Each structure stands twice: as C-alpha cells, then as structure tokens.
Amino acid sequence: MNKKRKVPLRKCVATGEMKPKKELVRIVRSKEGEVSIDLTGKKSGRGAYLSKDKEAVLLAKKKNILANHLEVTVDDEIYEELLAMIEKENGSSK
Questions:
Q1: pTM of the full predicted structure?
Q2: Fewer CB within 10 Å, N or C, the chain?
Q3: Are 14 and 59 in contact (CB under 8 A)?
Q4: How far apart are CA 92 and CA 1, in angstroms?
Q5: pLDDT tens-digit map of 42-83
C-alpha cells in the first residue's frame, strides 16, 4: 500500500517546460530588490524557476526573461554564477 508521492512541478521561465522542482534552480528577488540564487527553494521573496541547462540560462539572459519576471534588473554575475553551477553539476555527474 505504498502511496506514490506527488512530485512538485514548476515551470521554467525561459523554456516554458514543466519539470520536477528538483531539476530547476530558483532565482529570488528579496523585498529589498536583491537578486540571488536560492538552492534550498525556501528563501522568501519573488521567485522564478530556470532549467539547469546552459541553453535555458543563455536564453533567459538574451531575452531578459529573469529581469522581466522578477521586475528588477538582474546582474550578469547571477547568470555567470548559474552557468558555473551548471558546469560543476554536469562535470560531477559524468
């Protein structure tokens, strides 16, 4: 009588795909207007989910998707941090 646990799905703001929450990374804008990467998924503030792949991050940067969604300017440092994190994850999984 094992119940299947419901997997929380979230939509990637860049690609529009629905994916399990664990496959996405959350970017948060705090009340003070600071943008940060939320690895825990628990930070308070306005959040946007992005797929953990290079193409999604580059698309979000090119089309300014995160800035529009979070209603604040997003520094290039955030995108660089995301790309570095994705590279590290992909490198360790291979």
A1: 0.85
A2: N
A3: yes
A4: 36
A5: 999 999 999 999 999 999 999 999 999 999 999 999 999 999
Distance separating alpha carbons of residues 92 and 74, to the nearest angstrom:
28
In angstroms, the CA 28 to CA 84 distance is: 18
Q: Extract the tokens encoding 53.
A: 């792949």
Q: Do 57 and 14 meet the contact criterion of CB atoms below 8 Å apart? A: yes
Q: Which domains does the chain have, with CATH numbers?
A: 9-93 (3.30.1230.10)
Closest CA to 13 of 64, 65, 68, 76: 65
Q: Which residues pair with 20 in a beta bridge?
A: 9
Q: Which two tokens stand for residue 78?
A: 């955030």
